[in-house]
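Pasting as-is:
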Amino acid sequence: MPQQSEHPRRCPVFSHAAARRRPLARCLLLGLLCLACVALLRPTPAPAEPIRLTVGVESIDYPPYGSFRNGDYEGFARDLLDSFAIEYGYVMIYVALPVKRLYQEFLETRTLDLKFPDSESWHRSRRKGLNVRYSEPVCTYTDGILVRPGDLGKGMGAIHTLGILAGFKPWLLEPPIDPKSIRLSENLSISGLLGKGLMGRVDGVYANVEVARHLLAAMGLEDKLVYDPDLPHASGFYRLSTIKFPLVMREFDEFMRTRRELVQSLRRKHGLDR
């Protein structure tokens, strides 16, 4: 007779129970797979659209601060504002306008969200009653009078006709200029204005000193017109401004404080670290 095994055979009852559990396990597994597929197929919420901000800028060649060339805005201001926008989730739309219209669009019709450059001392009468918010200083500027080297040191007595950029007024210069004692000659571009000075069609050119230096250097004429610090001039800070979005201004100030190294590197890049 065959030897009996030392281990008892599996009871048929247990085999049937195991067989019943296998379909149940399969069902549970299939259910979990279905739930996973549903979760994967469910559309994920689209990321929020970044807020678009319109920035009013001057439609003039104003290096190194900001220039509107070939339909695009470029320069220090563009690099700085784009860096801020990327970090805080904004998209900057640059709207280049002539200076006079820029003030109208920003202060009166208020179709612009931000303005650069700006200063609380410009067109004070037009700002009365408006809650314009200004950023902390972005960069310094000096507006002064450039003359031919032979006229350096001759004083205001030698300035009979002063060349200025259209939309700009020299009445903020210190000491003040008597508007009755001098003739103004306007030009739509600083390059054209400098050309008048170089040709002797005006006795002096009122301009941002850094901008004039950049443009003259680009023409290879850096020493042909020189800044006379003894003539009336004005210094201050360029700022970003807004009427509509004070929160953006607080964020921009925070950016300027926390990203000092980045801001300084942009100043160096554009020659504004002197």
